């Protein structure tokens, strides 16, 4: 068998039991074939002996005269499900259609192997299924309140000669499509529809069988989603020859139309604004058409955000269905009328600002005397704004010390005046701001220097943070109504407008402080006239002419104006010819001396002449530069770069102005100086064995020869 292969045509195992008047679909498939992937099929029918041709997928002349009208009307047709499978569909099957059906596939194989047709027996039985609702011809209409219960009934039975089972499903339609609620399957199992699983497990959705083949749907705790048309859908099933269950027909009947009146909970007012120390009055209204006996349970909640859930919100007060109110000192809850409940909050505070909402539940009595909750609803939140009682006061800013020069101190005093209507639980704090003053109408945003929180803790801004931390800027509270700002050493960058903001804080019931008012002072301008700094640097070459190997020496004399007690730092630079690749930028920093007379080699990299350059301070405004053993590579323009420094605050030095000297040129004559060489002997005549003493004398023209 492992080596056998051939075409296999399959139809369901019969007999197939079908109900008269229903639509029947008989599948047929082929596998293990050669040739094209899409195969053709022929269907034939036999009541007793000979087969009659019904329909074909490839031959339009295949149909016999007996079936031409039914095939032409579409009562019998082929429905292709894939390249290798089709279904024979018979609409409104009749007892005359009972018999054997044969499915054949024309050969496309290279060799004839396997089976090329298959047969199945179809048995047509009478329709014995009956489904009905109430005795009324039209569906019943039910009008219910949210939380009510209701029951619906339908009857279903069958007189089929075969052993069939019924499958009963209750459905609801609130839009365009039906939804399954609960089913009793043909296998005797209860099956809740999608979305009804939890309600089925809790017992709020039930399906019970009763006498006279009745099926009762019970719905408890009805919600607005349960409104719509209800029907009872019954299908008849039979077990096939292969052991599988097959649905042979289905019938449905619409039982009732159910409308659910929604219970709403609303707060009578919308957004509310009240003044601090007043009372807040809110009413929760329950809208329901329920006419019987019921009691409401009401709970009031507070939340800082409208999006908070009940678990995140704060429960203020509650009244159960026995009208028992939870205890509170400043909050009360009263029953105004049958459906209205009033919340009263006395002596409100700013911290009472937020969102208020109420939750209401409807309870109805049961036969055993207990109460049952049928519905629960939460209102939309209402925004409540509590306006603080503002104290009345003015703010005055003045300068007790103003600078006349840089590094002089500045002191500003911010005073609270004309204070009225303040209570013992009011506290004042200050914030200091700076704004640069620009010419014209240009506006510059203010910069925060520092502010105080409600506990008088100092919070620093970005401007001057380091100076504040170093003690150069000091904030203090001189008295209960005066705050001070002191700049120990005022610089040009501190010039501008200063103003203060006095904040009033109110103390609330929970001992927290909340800002209630800000008052801003008029600005005070800090400014002093200054004269521009001037700095002059003159470089002088001490030796007008020298050659390679000699010492180059120059001095730099500095003079300045409008700078108090200046000190100078000096940097010697050299501008080399463009052919010198040692300094691609053209300028070399050689040696420097700072304002504290500390010498530093900058870009001097000649290791053989580490001590070959010297920069020294001759007097307060004169500096001397020496370069020993000059070389041809030292040619260039030499300058003094001088920076004037003035003493700043805290012993620090502040840069005032920079100056650049005239250039001093080092230029060597590559041909060299003119000189003579001669030999001299004191004893022109000597004897053999005596010592000859000779002198080699070098003389130059007009220039002494250095040792």
UniProtKB/TrEMBL annotation:
**GO annotation, cellular component aspect:** membrane
> Which Gene3D superfamilies is this protein grouped with?
Immunoglobulins
**Stretches assigned to the Ig-like domain:** 21-113, 133-254, 263-360, 391-520
**Which Pfam families does this entry report, sorted A to Z?**
V-set
Its membrane topology is listed as: Single-pass membrane protein
Source species, domain of life: Eukaryota
Keywords, A to Z, come to: Disulfide bond, Immunoglobulin domain, Membrane, Repeat, Signal, Transmembrane, Transmembrane helix
Principal place where this protein is found? membrane
Question: What SUPFAM superfamilies has UniProt attached to this entry?
Answer: Immunoglobulin
Q: Where in the cell is it found?
A: Membrane
Name-wise, this protein is FPRP regulator
């Amino acid at each position: 068998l492992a080596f056998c292969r051939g075409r296999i045509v399959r139809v369901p195992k019969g007999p197939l039991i079908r109900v008269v008047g229903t639509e029947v679909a008989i599948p047929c498939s082929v596998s293990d074939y050669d040739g094209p992937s899409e195969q053709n099929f022929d269907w034939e029918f036999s009541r007793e002996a000979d087969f009659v041709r019904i329909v074909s997928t490839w031959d339009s002349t295949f149909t016999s005269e007996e079936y031409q009208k039914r095939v032409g009307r579409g009562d019998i047709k082929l429905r292709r499900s894939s390249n290798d499978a089709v279904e024979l569909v018979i609409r409104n099957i009749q007892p005359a259609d009972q018999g054997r059906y044969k499915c054949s596939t024309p050969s496309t194989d290279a060799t004839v192997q396997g089976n090329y047709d298959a047969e199945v027996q179809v048995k047509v039985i009478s329709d014995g299924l009956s489904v009905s609702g109430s005795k009324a011809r039209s569906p019943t209409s039910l009008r219910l309140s949210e939380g009510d219960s209701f029951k619906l009934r339908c009857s279903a039975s069958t007189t089929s000669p075969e052993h069939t089972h019924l499958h009963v499903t209750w459905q609801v339609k609130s839009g365009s499509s039906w939804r399954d609620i609960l089913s009793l399957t043909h296998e005797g199992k209860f099956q809740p529809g999608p979305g009804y699983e939890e309600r089925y497990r809790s017992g709020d959705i039930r399906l019970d069988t009763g006498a006279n083949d009745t099926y009762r749907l019970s719905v408890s705790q009805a919600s607005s989603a349960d409104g719509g048309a209800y029907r009872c859908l019954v299908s008849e099933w039979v077990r096939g020859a292969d052991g599988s269950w097959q649905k042979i027909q289905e019938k449905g009947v619409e039982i009732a139309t159910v409308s659910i009146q929604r219970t709403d909970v609303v707060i009578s007012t919308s957004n509310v604004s009240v003044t601090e120390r007043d009372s807040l009055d809110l009413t929760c209204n329950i809208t329901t058409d329920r006419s019987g006996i019921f009691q409401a349970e009401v709970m009031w909640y507070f939340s800082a955000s409208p999006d908070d859930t009940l678990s995140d919100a704060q429960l203020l007060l509650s009244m159960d269905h026995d009208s028992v109110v939870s205890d509170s000192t400043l909050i009360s809850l009263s029953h105004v009328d049958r459906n209205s409940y009033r919340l009263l909050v006395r002596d409100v505070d700013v911290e009472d600002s937020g969102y208020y909402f109420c939750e209401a539940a409807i309870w109805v009595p049961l036969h055993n005397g207990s109460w049952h909750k049928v519905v629960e609803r939460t209102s939309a939140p209402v925004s409540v704004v509590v306006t603080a009682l503002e104290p009345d006061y003015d703010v005055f800013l003045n300068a007790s010390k103003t600078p006349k020069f840089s590094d002089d101190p500045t002191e500003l005093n911010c005073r609270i005046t004309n204070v009225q209507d303040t209570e013992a639980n009011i506290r004042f704090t200050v914030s200091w701001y700076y704004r640069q003053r620009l010419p014209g109408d240009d506006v510059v945003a203010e910069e925060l220097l520092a502010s105080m929180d409600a506990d008088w803790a100092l919070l620093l801004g970005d401007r001057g943070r380091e100076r504040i931390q170093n003690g150069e800027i000091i904030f203090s509270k001189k008295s209960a109504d005066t705050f001070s700002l002191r700049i120990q050493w005022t610089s040009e960058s501190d010039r501008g407008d200063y103003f203060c903001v006095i904040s009033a804080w109110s103390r609330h019931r929970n001992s927290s402080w909340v800002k209630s008012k800000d008052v801003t002072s008029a600005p005070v301008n800090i400014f002093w006239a200054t004269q521009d700094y001037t700095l002059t640097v003159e470089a002088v070459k001490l030796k007008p002419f020298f050659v390679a190997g000699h010492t180059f020496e120059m001095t730099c004399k500095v003079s300045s104006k409008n700078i108090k007690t200046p000190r100078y730092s000096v940097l010697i630079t050299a501008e080399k010819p463009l052919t010198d690749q040692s300094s691609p930028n053209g300028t070399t920093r050689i040696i420097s001396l700072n304002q504290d007379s500390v010498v530093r080699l900058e870009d001097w990299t000649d290791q053989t002449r580490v001590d070959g350059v010297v920069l020294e301070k001759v007097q307060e405004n004169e500096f001397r530069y020496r370069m020993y053993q000059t070389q041809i590579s030292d040619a260039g323009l030499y300058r003094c770069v001088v920076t004037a420094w003035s003493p700043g605050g805290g012993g620090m030095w502040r840069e005032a102005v920079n100056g650049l000297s005239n250039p001093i040129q080092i230029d060597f004559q590559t041909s060299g100086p003119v000189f003579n060489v001669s030999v001299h002997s004191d004893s022109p005549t000597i004897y053999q064995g005596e010592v000859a003493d000779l002198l080699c004398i070098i003389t130059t023209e007009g220039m002494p020869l250095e040792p």
